Automatic annotation (TrEMBL):
Catalyzes the conversion of epoxyqueuosine (oQ) to queuosine (Q), which is a hypermodified base found in the wobble positions of tRNA(Asp), tRNA(Asn), tRNA(His) and tRNA(Tyr). It is found in: Cytoplasm. Residues 173-205 form the 4Fe-4S ferredoxin-type domain. Belongs to the QueG family. This is Epoxyqueuosine reductase. Cob(II)alamin binds at R60, D131, N152, L155, I166, S213, C238, D239. Pathway: tRNA modification; tRNA-queuosine biosynthesis. One of its GO terms (molecular function) is 4 iron, 4 sulfur cluster binding. The gene is queG. Its cofactor is cob(II)alamin; [4Fe-4S] cluster. InterPro entries: 4Fe4S_Fe-S-bd (IPR017896), 4Fe4S_Fe_S_CS (IPR017900), QueG (IPR004453), QueG_DUF1730 (IPR013542). [4Fe-4S] cluster 2 binds at C195, C211, C238, C241. One of its GO terms (biological process) is tRNA queuosine(34) biosynthetic process. The keyword Cell division does not apply.
Length: 312
């Protein structure tokens, strides 16, 4: 067995010990295929008010601009599919926000992995990324064979569907690289048919500015009237295009204590949502990704959903 293979096996084994579901490795190189796609997406204003997406265009495509001398991108998947969900008649938040904010949970695991690499392999330079930096997570995960990017633009695997977080280590260590797998979406259009706002404008193209997640998290202005009545019960994020995906029948409940459904959240009745106070918001969502929308943002979303229901 080559030294490269030994190091690769060591990293993948440690990733499993840290709770990551899968680990794939790709060569750190310019993402040539993604460049025109990203450019078209931005030119068509599909990022809406997510102006940060316009920044660091080159860095999103070239890992060497993030880690000088980068040789490998280690992509990791961490399952967040919950063993229990919020009651159907309750107001809904995306499953990824049921427990503690994933940024902190995953960052800790990545730091442990990088420390382990340095202790067992030697002086390795690198950085950890959890969707808060200009890195095209799904493109790297696809390149390293962890799944394919589906028609709803989510990374999908045949083994466990798509309910997982994607994270990376970009390091200056040469390793054995994995190859991409084929696309298994076939002729299925369930995600396109189910999206209530028509955000999936065509297979593999999502207009972020039309997505319920965008309206309930990213948009800081008033939610436009034309999407009234289309949100169902969603007040933070949306899982519709994942819930209808046939591959998600293979999703398996996560084993991560930090992602467990917050008990206080589970017991919020509809009236509790309507009468939400800032104190209750702080108590229920103190460690949650829901903090991103803020108390006033969540209140705006709740009122929008409830008022539209009354109108209809």
């Amino acid at each position: 067995m080559s030294v490269k293979q030994q190091f690769t096996n060591l990293i993948k084994q440690k990733a499993t010990e840290l709770g990551f579901m899968y680990c794939g490795i790709s060569k750190a190189e310019f993402l040539e295929e993604e460049a025109p796609r990203l450019e078209n997406w931005l030119n068509n204003q599909m990022h809406g008010q997510m102006h940060y997406m316009e920044n660091h265009f080159d860095k999103r495509l070239d890992p060497h601009l993030l880690v000088p001398g980068a040789k490998s991108v280690v992509s990791l998947l961490l399952n967040y599919y919950p063993p229990e969900t919020l009651p159907e008649n309750s107001l809904q938040i995306s499953k990824y926000a049921y427990g503690q904010d994933y940024h902190f949970v995953i960052k800790d695991k990545l730091k442990s992995l990088l420390t382990y690499i340095r202790e067992n392999i030697g002086e390795v330079d690198g950085r950890a990324f959890v969707d808060s930096a200009p890195v095209l997570d799904k493109a790297w995960a696809k390149k390293s064979g962890l799944g394919w990017i589906g028609k709803n633009s989510n990374l999908i695997t045949t083994q466990v569907g798509s309910f997982y977080f994607i994270a990376e280590l970009i390091i200056d260590l040469e390793l054995e690289y994995d190859g991409p797998i084929k696309d298994y979406c076939g002729t299925c259009t369930k995600c396109l048919d189910a999206c209530p706002t028509g955000a999936i404008t065509e297979p593999y193209v999502v207009d972020g500015s039309k997505c319920i997640s965008y309206f309930t998290i990213e948009l800081k202005d008033k939610i436009p009237d034309e999407v009234g009545g289309k949100f169902g019960n969603w007040v933070f994020g949306c899982d519709i295009c994942q819930d209808v995906c046939p591959w998600n029948r293979f999703s398996k409940p996560h084993q991560e204590p930090a992602f467990k459904l917050e008990p206080a959240l589970q017991h919020l009745a509809k009236n509790d949502w309507r009468e939400l106070t800032e104190d209750v918001f702080r108590q229920v969502f103190r460690k949650s990704a829901v903090k991103r929308t803020g108390f006033n943002g969540l209140l705006r979303n709740i009122k929008f959903v409830e008022e539209q229901k009354e109108k209809n």
